[in-house]
Amino acid sequence: MREKPILYKDINGFITCSLCNGYLIDAATIPECLHTFCKTCIAAYLDNDEEDNTRCPKCDSVIDHVNPWRVLVFDRTLQSIAYKLVPHLYKEEIERQIAYCKERDLPYPPALVEKLQEKRDEEEPQTIPSNSDLHIYDDQVAICIESKSKDLQSLNICLVAITT
């Protein structure tokens, strides 16, 4: 198994949205150019009647003249990586969605209910049967964040791909 240290600043551009400059939330990718944005950011861009919303906001490549929504791909893998690399991002996003629903007296959407259940499941200790195959429960990418200094200014990240 090989470890290759990667600086946080080198991967930050891949997990941030160029429209809001925040970390990706519900990552949506345009297949023609592979640029990824937050779902709400690209939705606001596509719904804006004042702009030419049939082109990528980053590189200006044509998305779809008739229905740009049709070609968007929700990138669960990239979103999962963003949640792993940014501590507490997932938890804070769930809390923001809960607060939004509570402020407006709205019922929780089914996706939010699933996220809440996942969060509860993560907090509960898991018991794994002794005769089970342990690699099924492990993630395929391990991420280790290390600091060589006590002020935490420079973080080195080690991404380790686990292959079987």
From TrEMBL:
The keyword GTP-binding does not apply. One of its GO terms (cellular component) is PcG protein complex. It is found in: Nucleus. InterPro entries: PcG_RING_finger, Znf_C3HC4_RING-type, Znf_RING, Znf_RING/FYVE/PHD, Znf_RING_CS. Keywords: Metal-binding, Nucleus, Zinc, Zinc-finger. It comes from the Eukaryota. The keyword Flavoprotein does not apply. SUPFAM superfamilies: RING/U-box. One of its GO terms (molecular function) is zinc ion binding. SMART domains: RING. Residues 17-60 form the RING-type domain. This is RING-type domain-containing protein.
